[in-house]
């Protein structure tokens, strides 16, 4: 006897709603009943769509990462230089309206680091997506090792600045540091184009 076929569209809609709920409420107390009640479905529906609570969390992580990457890619546009790409990423991620989303991102990142075997897919892609985009933004003439090193520094700097901003709320100080860093990238891009 075969089970019901999976309705992928309904699962995707529920996943987006679960991500929205988790962005608003956090995931430390994430449990079936409150999520189901907030979404107007039964806990059984969530179990049917996601399996275990851990599987739901993995799905949340994946969708959150996809959302952040897609939204930032939209802001960057096609074929930007490194400085333009980095500035677009910083502008998007440091937007106060995105604070809850990135607090969740860092909370989830921390959990994934504590259970890397459970969250291997998230950890594999959380840096790789940005790494590839930022290497490409440096142009085909950039030495691959240099492009990787520079992309690593950009990712680490932006994530560090964002974590500082979320932890302290000191927007003026962090924005000043971010501007200094981004200006350095602009000068670097100008020098490479000469």
UniProtKB/TrEMBL annotation:
PROSITE patterns given in the database record: HTH_TETR_2
DNA bind region: 31-50
Domain of life where this protein originates: Bacteria
Domain HTH tetR-type: 8-68
Protein name: TetR/AcrR family transcriptional regulator
UniProt keywords, alphabetically: DNA-binding, Transcription, Transcription regulation
One Pfam family from the record: TetR_N
Family annotation (SUPFAM superfamilies): Homeodomain-like, Tetracyclin repressor-like, C-terminal domain
KW Cytoplasm (keyword) present: no
UniProt organism field: Actinoallomurus oryzae
InterPro entries: Homeodomain-like_sf, HTH-type_TetR-like_transc_reg, HTH_TetR, Tet_transcr_reg_TetR-rel_C_sf
Annotated PANTHER family: HTH-TYPE TRANSCRIPTIONAL REGULATOR BETI, HTH-TYPE TRANSCRIPTIONAL REGULATOR RUTR
